[in-house]
């Protein structure tokens, strides 16, 4: 049975219960992180905890744990559950109030929940063939840099992709690419990697940072700048990146093949190289015990 952490205690998942007056339940008032764990080692944990702090600051919620305490709790949840590769989910909400009231309660006791699931990365066939995506107007709010649990827009947008037999929805706002419903999006054009800048319109992905670091380390030209919708639609390659999808090629967008000539509708060479660099990097980090 899966063991989870809720409000200071480890317990079987079936015993974990949250009061109905919890503001996470009533308002989606909370922050979350999803941390991949390889060979029982959390990947880029300090960066995930830094992003959690950014979200908590953005929603005016005091961090209930110091960094070292988060690290200890996450280490313990990983140790208490099966599987070497896991996906740790943590959530902090503004806690339970006695009345439903939009304004914050005077006494805030945040609810802290941590669980872990087996890490499921894309199967090899999907990686080799690539995935299909659709696009939609980005109808979310203007603080997409915060990883909040209010994910209704993201859920609707991802479901739109699933209804169309696709994996992801690319989001465009005012003529520019922002990100995916639950991933960051990279564009390759003429051998140059293009990535939208980290601003309030997209989540600053941990995988996004790794991809840009790997591009720099391997001499792949990269430009971080606003990416016009037409540039994304005319891309040689499109990738989605996230902690669970890693680097996954998108080969069809709105039913049209991505890419040109013999690569049209097939994963491209730059994405294949980035995937290999990413895997090698993971191995190096795991060996170094980072
Ligand atoms: N989502 N953008 C959005 C909107 C996301 O939800 C995610 C990840 C990313 C990629 O971030 P990272 O590389 O740090 O995983 C970008 C996670 C996986 C989720 O909600 O399950």
Give a concise summary:
The protein is α+β, with helices and mostly antiparallel strands and 290 residues long. It is 30% helix and 28% strand.
Describe it for me?
By secondary structure, this protein is an alpha+beta fold. 30% of the residues lie in helices and 28% in strands. The chain has helices at residues 23-27, 45-58, 67-80, 124-129, 152-163, 206-217, 229-233, 269-288, and strands at residues 3-6, 9-12, 30-38, 41-42, 86-93, 111-118, 131-137, 168-173, 176-180, 184-189, 192-195, 222-224, 237-242, 246-253, 256-257. Strands 7, 8, 9, 10, 11, 12, 13, 14 and 15 form a 9-stranded mixed beta sheet that branches. A 6-stranded antiparallel beta sheet has the order 2-1-6-5-3-4. A hairpin with a 3-residue loop joins strand 13 (237-242) and strand 14. It is globular and about 60 Å long. Bound molecules: N-(5'-phosphopyridoxyl)-D-alanine (PDD).
């Amino acid at each position: 049975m899966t063991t989870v952490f809720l409000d200071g205690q480890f317990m079987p998942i079936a015993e974990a219960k949250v009061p109905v007056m919890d503001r996470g339940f009533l308002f989606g008032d909370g922050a979350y992180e999803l941390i991949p764990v390889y060979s029982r080692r959390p990947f880029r944990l300090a960066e995930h905890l830094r992003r959690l702090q950014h979200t908590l600051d953005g929603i005016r919620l005091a961090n209930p744990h110091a960094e070292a305490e988060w690290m200890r709790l996450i280490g313990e949840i990983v140790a208490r559950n099966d599987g070497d590769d896991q996906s740790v989910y943590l959530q902090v909400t503004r806690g339970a109030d006695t009345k439903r009231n939009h304004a914050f309660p005077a006494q805030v006791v945040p609810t802290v929940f941590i669980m872990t699931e087996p890490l499921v990365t894309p199967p090899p066939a999907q990686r080799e063939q690539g995935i299909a995506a659709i696009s939609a107007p980005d109808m979310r709010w203007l603080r997409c840099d915060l990883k909040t649990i209010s994910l209704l827009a993201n859920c609707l947008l991802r479901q739109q992709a699933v209804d169309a037999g696709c994996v992801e929805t690319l989001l465009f706002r005012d003529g520019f690419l922002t990100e995916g419903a639950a991933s960051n999006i990279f564009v390759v054009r003429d051998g140059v990697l293009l990535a939208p800048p980290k601003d309030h319109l997209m989540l600053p992905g941990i995988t996004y940072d790794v991809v840009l670091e790997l591009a720099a380390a391997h001499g792949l030209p990269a430009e971080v700048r606003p990416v016009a919708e037409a540039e994304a639609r005319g891309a040689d390659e499109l990738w989605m990146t996230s902690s669970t999808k890693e680097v996954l090629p998108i080969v069809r967008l709105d039913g049209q093949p991505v890419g040109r000539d013999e690569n049209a509708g097939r994963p491209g060479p730059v994405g294949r190289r980035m995937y290999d660099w990413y895997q090698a990097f993971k191995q190096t980090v795991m060996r170094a015990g980072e």
